[in-house]
């Protein structure tokens, strides 16, 4: 009997020691990564709010799991068969029935409440965003128009008649340049069918519904605040026709000073310049072409020539 107790105690000590080694060997980054429970790293404030919701949902699920597993193992040990005598049977226990009826309801209500709060935060629109961009989707490309305010008639341009914009073409993938740390509101507009604005690193996508030229539907608006500089691939996430798979764009997050420099260069390049996007990007100190549209070559003309030569 004593040997069995010592053996059990030894195993417990070894388990505790192994657990301590695992925990002490984890850096703060490793701990944060584990607490994401598989949730990817986002680059916007809205993505972080969704990550927090996911993390605490995972913690709640683990707590429920530990409780259920604990009760199962406790019952297996406490009421294991010792002889042919049946243990005392308990039924119609009102306190226990109330607990296992109310507890799941409280947990579900809490998760539902937090989900609604986060969803409202993600969908919240500012009256005066720092940057307003109209995204025009069409078969099979994108146009980005930089607007001056919530009034879509006022635009970033020297002539005050046409918006500063970039548009994709057969040989150039459009690049949407945006400032880090500022509120960006997107107005979506489709020229033909339903498309979808999707940037995987934003952990968010929104269908582009063709509501007409007035853009009155709030469903076609959303906003975000980027927290990290970088270039991020954007795609159409709604099957929209023959060249849907090649309907890519790039979002480039830069410092506000670089963003203002880019807008000035875009205005200076002129509306009638087919290479105005490349010229403006280069003038602002950035790569003149999209760099994150894998698996498609960003130089569409070169890709088309390669495909023809291969065939």
UniProtKB/TrEMBL annotation:
- Which UniProt keywords are given for this protein, alphabetically ordered? Copper, Electron transport, Membrane, Metal-binding, Translocase, Transmembrane, Transmembrane helix, Transport
Reported EC number(s) for this entry are 7.1.1.9
Cell location: Membrane
Where are the residues of the annotated region Disordered? 292-311
InterPro entries, alphabetically? Answer: CcO_II (IPR045187), CcO_II-like_C (IPR002429), Copper_CuA (IPR001505), Cupredoxin (IPR008972), Cyt_c_oxidase_su2_TM_sf (IPR036257)
Which reactions is this enzyme annotated as catalysing? 4 Fe(II)-[cytochrome c] + O2 + 8 H(+)(in) = 4 Fe(III)-[cytochrome c] + 2 H2O + 4 H(+)(out)
What Pfam families does its record include?
A: COX2
Q: Which residue windows are transmembrane per the record? A: 52-77, 98-117
Which Gene3D superfamilies is this protein grouped with?
Answer: 1.10.287.90, Cupredoxins - blue copper proteins (2.60.40.420)
Q: Where is the Cytochrome oxidase subunit II copper A binding domain?
A: 128-265
Q: Which SUPFAM superfamilies match?
A: Cupredoxins, Cytochrome c oxidase subunit II-like, transmembrane region
Similarity comment: family membership = Belongs to the cytochrome c oxidase subunit 2 family.
What role does it play?
Subunits I and II form the functional core of the enzyme complex. Electrons originating in cytochrome c are transferred via heme a and Cu(A) to the binuclear center formed by heme a3 and Cu(B).
Any idea what this protein is called?
cytochrome-c oxidase
